[in-house]
């Protein structure tokens, strides 16, 4: 069993724009049933879940370099697995440039 894992992430609702503004977020992955992982996307403050998805348990999220499209209405980029204190461990992908609280990727 994978247990519960937290990932730092960037997310956007701008699915069609070429130049997107990204916001900081957190993904919590939890194996709810044997072979099924529930993913929940939260804003950085963690107050409410923005979106939810399910994936097969054999998906290697900590090595995923692609933009996740499994959340309805959101594009999500994983930054890395978070340690117990909430800080990201070594980033799986290069971090996009930040501009005034939001992140822009070209």
List the helices and strands and how they pair.
Blueprint: E1 4-12, E2 20-33, E3 36-43, E4 49-56, E5 67-68, E6 75-81, E7 97-99, E8 102-105
Antiparallel strand pairs: 1-2, 1-6, 2-3, 2-8, 3-4, 5-6, 7-8
Features:
106 residues; mainly beta; 8-stranded antiparallel beta sheet; globular
Short description:
This protein is mainly beta and 106 residues long.
What does this structure look like?
This protein is mostly beta strands and 106 residues long. It contains no helices and eight strands. The chain has strands at residues 4-12, 20-33, 36-43, 49-56, 67-68, 75-81, 97-99, 102-105. It starts with a strand and ends with a strand.
Counted beta strands = 8
- Beta-strand share of residues: over 45%
The total of helices stands at 0
SSE series: EEEEEEEE
Alpha-beta content class: mainly beta
Query: N-to-C terminal Cα separation, in Å?
Result: 37 Å
Helix fraction, binned, reads under 10%
Task: Provide mean pLDDT, rounded.
Answer: 76
Morphology: globular
Residue runs with pLDDT of under 50 for 5 or more positions? 88-100
């Amino acid at each position: 069993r994978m247990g519960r894992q937290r990932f730092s992430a960037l997310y956007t609702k701008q699915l069609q724009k070429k130049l997107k503004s990204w916001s900081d977020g957190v993904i919590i992955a939890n194996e709810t049933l044997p072979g099924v992982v529930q993913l929940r996307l939260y804003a950085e403050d963690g107050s409410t879940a923005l979106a939810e998805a399910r994936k097969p348990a054999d998906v290697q999220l900590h090595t995923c370099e692609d933009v996740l499209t499994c959340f309805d209405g959101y594009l999500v980029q994983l930054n890395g697995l978070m340690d117990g204190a909430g800080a990201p461990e070594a980033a799986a992908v290069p971090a996009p440039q930040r501009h005034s609280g939001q992140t822009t990727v070209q």
